Amino acid sequence: MALTLISKAFAEGTPIPRKYALEGENIFPPLAWGAAPEKTQSFALIIEDPDAPSGTFRHCGIANIPAQWSALVESVDTMQEQALRFYKNDFGNARYDGPRPPAGDPPHRYIFRLAALDVPRVTLPEAAGAEAMWQKVTKHTLAEASLTGSYQA
Questions:
Q1: Could you tell me if 66 and 85 are in contact, meaning their C-beta atoms sit under 8 angstroms apart?
Q2: Among 51, 60, 145, 148, which is disulfide-ready with 108 (CB 3.0 to 4.6 Å)?
Q3: Pfam families per the record (predicted)?
Q4: What is the CATH number of the domain that holds 85?
Q5: How is 108-146 classified by DSSP, letter by letter?
Q6: What's this model's pTM, rounded to 2 decimal places?
């Protein structure tokens, strides 16, 4: 069975509720996963908008998610969880910042990508962004799952 990723906030291909958008409450949506490979030592997550006018825009990057976890709770980025490492998104913040497509744009896709890794920790400089983190974790990926939602301003 392959690695799976779901959210109780939205289903694959459906709109992401305003609550999770930058113009809403801007809180991290709950995520859950299953069927991780047996040799998984940690997980990493990136959230990307491939429809941004300037090219792919990263809204969140998280590494060092413990292997025994099977979910990230709503608002996980506001908790003082020592295990997680948030990398700077393209807004320049080391946290989740939700969807914010330009007014008048058609709906943008937001792709939540979870990687099961063969290493327990990923270490990068403090200034590293979500894109650099994802490039590093791809070298250690055992399996990947994705969940896509949409949002329109």
A1: no
A2: 51
A3: PBP
A4: 3.90.280.10
A5: EEEEEEEEEESSS-----TT-BHHHHHHHHHTTEEEEEE
A6: 0.96
